[in-house]
Description:
By secondary structure, this protein is mainly beta.
Amino acid sequence: MAEMPPVRLLLLSLLFTLVIATARDSVGNHDDDDGAALLAFKVGIRRGGSSGPLRSWNSSTSFCSWEGVTCGGGSGRVVALDLSSHGLAGMLPAAIGNLTSLRTLNLSFNWFHGGIPASLGRLHRLQTLDLSYNSLSGTLPDNMSLCTGMTALVLGSNNLGGLIPSSLGDTLTNLKKVSLTNNSLTGAVPASLANLSFLQHLDLSINQLEGSIPPGLRGLRSISHIDLSANGFSGALPSSLYNLSLLRSLQVEGNTLQGSIPADIGDRLPAMEKLVLSRNRFSGAIPHSVTNLSSLTALRLGWNQFSGHVPRTLGRSQDLRYLELAGNKLEADNSRGWEFMDSLANCTQLQYLALDNNSFRGQLPGSVVNLSTSLEKFFIGYNNISGEIPSDISNLAGLKVLQVANTSVSGAIPESIGKLANLVMFFMFNNALSGLVPPSVGNLTRLNWILAYNNNLEGPIPASLGKLKDLNILDMSKNRLNGSIPREIFKLSSLSIQLDLSYNSLSGPLPSEVGSLTNLNWLVLSGNQLRGRIPESISSCTVHSKLVNEQVVRYDSRCLRWNCHFERAVSGTEQLDWANPSCSTKFDIAVGARFVVQ
Length: 598
């Protein structure tokens, strides 16, 4: 090979040096641009200054060491900015669009407001954009479609409005995750979203979207999660969605969708874990093949128009944790239909079971006591079921909410109920329960609510209820309870919402401990046989919004004092005008209460 002339070698050497110098100059300039963009971002926010979470952002150190900033190893350019959950506020500065090497921008869980700056369209290398959980408004910028390498677009829980731009599906074809939940987006779902063949997660829930769900979404062959809940979608759910064999979660609750579930759903969606169709207008039978969904953890079909029997082997889905069938027209009676309850004993992780508001009839199945000890919430009321509450109900040791209301269930509340130590809410109203209130209820020290009104319960109110230090509501009205009201009840300072013992046969005086109910909003004692003087201690109860006693009560001739004075003292047998007391407090005494003085 011929030797290169010295002059030519010199020229090439100079040229190479110039290129390197120019490149270094360019990198240096970009470094300066990134630092300036970050400082402009800092200036534009209301918090995070010298004493805030961005106090490390100053010229004394390289911006690559600043909090939340990540630079590329070779280029020295900013490739990631993560300031999530920093309490930052203000409008997003347009200067953020100058970070042109940015691949990840995460400003979620802050207080940013105003619009999304159009300058974000200059971030051509951006892959992940997360601005969720702020207060951003306006529309989605059209030029965001220039970020063609984006794989995750997360803008949920803001105040964004307007249409979803069709360009989202036309140009951002690398997207794997789109989350626009909890905004105010309107209009239809663009058919172009069907082009997102790599999309795995689509969440458009809690918006104001309407129209039909595009059947073209069958093109989302990689999709595993679809959430279109709480919108205004109507029409039939496209049958093509049931062909998305990788789909693990389909949620469309809270729309006005209609139609039926395909008979072969269990074969078409083998990976399904969460199927949520509740609060729509779906009808027909629940197909037996749903029991083939072996990975199912949540099945929510409540508040539709499903009819017929529940598949008898539903418990084959052994990982089931959440089963909601309430608010339909499902049937069962003593001869047929309750078999599914037996199979649910196989669901050892079941935590939520809602069967209320259906057309179930017959005896309450004894197999209810074989349900999972992990069961926390059980609703079976508003059905025409009968029979008694089994004593082995105590097997359900994990129960926090028990609702057997508005049924024909009769018999006594079993003493074993006191073993449900985790119970927080106890709903047993509008039944035919009879017998004594078991003192063991006093063992349920986590109880917040007891609603046992409109039954045939009799005997005294157990003083043990005074141990329920977390009780907010006690309603045992419209029963046949007798005896005096235990003083311990009135010592429950936690009673803040309602104490209703009306329309029983309670007698004796009103204990002076009633003055301890300083937080109570509603006290109802009408329809009993209480006698004697109203305690002056009740003047401490200045938070009451209602004090209702529509019966005739005899008490000693004295002027009542409620931190206010009535317009005139009462004597003889005059009717006290409770409707017009001269009060300066917030005390609101119900109109129509009558007391006769002797």
